Amino acid sequence: MSKLFIAVMTVLMLTSCAQSYHVQGTSSVSSLDGSKLYLKTIDEGELKTIDSCDVLHGQFVFSGTLDTVTMANLYMDEESLMPIVLEKGEISITIDNANQIVKGTLFNDKLYDFLDKHQQLENQLNELAHKQSRMMLDGIDEETINKQLVGEHEQIMKEEDRLVTGFIVENFDNVLGPWGFMMITSGFRYPILTPQIEDIMSKASEKFKNDLYVKEYYKTASENEARMQGLDPEEQPMMTGDSTAVASQTQSPLMNIPQHDESH
Questions:
Q1: C-alpha distances out from residue 222 to 203, 208, 228, 233, Å
Q2: CA–CA separation, 62 vs 21, rounded Å?
Q3: Separation of alpha carbons 54 and 101, rounded Å
Q4: Residue 52's beta-bridge partner residues?
Q5: Terminus-to-terminus CA distance in the chain, angstroms?
Q6: Contact in structure between 34 and 45 (CB atoms under 8 Å)
């Protein structure tokens, strides 16, 4: 077998493993016209631009190849507009003043179905605040208002917990699982363990546990938990697994809780 033939076959094999993506976008938001949009992703802990294009007459297009299905975000300058999964197939983005939607491929359809359901729960939470104001204007006493609304709030939060946990568990072994985990943890001031996080990690696959963000978050959160309990983090059992994980889409640094200085 000639070296040339081997070289050609190698190139063909590598090409077949690549993920070709094509994104066709439309926007009715006038402020976007003439702007430059970017697709950015996390690579080894750093936010990197992998593609860019201009918005002309409400239209924009991205296309390229990647080694694997990749979680990315659409940016205008430094502002993140929306998440998108770069995968094989025809991906469409629609941006208007009311919604931003990505569809056309398996993971993007799953992602935006989840985001739609999550937004519905957020809307229900917002409606509780309006309901409280209306009840106060109607002269209902504060104790009665709180008794009713606290129960409704707890029910919505339980539904949100089930929705998010179910989404992550269902997608443990693809890019959506680590993205969902990042979504529920990135708002914390520092990594902590919550009942929801512990529940997720108790069910997690090895691939999910070894995602770079998930693994580092859980390690740091466990160390923080040990410190808060007055234990030595070095003596606590940690999650183990393969370190060859793919980085997830996150921009949140992981911080340790500072040690308490007993000398002061």
A1: 17, 17, 10, 8
A2: 8
A3: 19
A4: 38
A5: 75
A6: no
CA–CA separation, 142 vs 132, rounded Å? 9
**Residue entry with tokens 């708002």:** 187
Query: What is the token pair recorded at 224?
Result: 């923080």
Distance of CA 99 to the CA centre of its chain: 18
**Locus of tokens 């936010």:** 47
Query: From CA 137, how far away is CA 72, in angstroms rounded?
Result: 46
Distances (CA, A) of 174 to 69, 82, 218: 8, 19, 18
Res 216: pLDDT: 94
Look up tokens 């939060």; give the residue.
157
Residue tagged 């793919």 (tokens): 246
Q: What secondary structure does DSSP assign to 211-236, as a single string?
A: SHHHHHHHHHHHHHHHHHTT--GGGS
pLDDT for the residue numbered 234: 62
Q: Which two tokens stand for residue 64?
A: 């390229």
pLDDT (tens digit, 9 = 90+) per residue, 38-71? 999 988 778 999 999 999 999 999 999 988 999 9
Residue type, 222: S
Other C-beta atoms within 10 Å of 24: how many? 15
Look at residues 205, 195, 188, 161 and name the one whose alpha carbon lies nearest to residue 254.
Answer: 188
**Which string of DSSP letters, residue by residue, matches 145-179?**
HHHHHHHHHHHHHHHHHHHHHHHHHHTTTSTHHHH
As a whole number of angstroms, the distance between CA 141 and CA 148 comes to 11
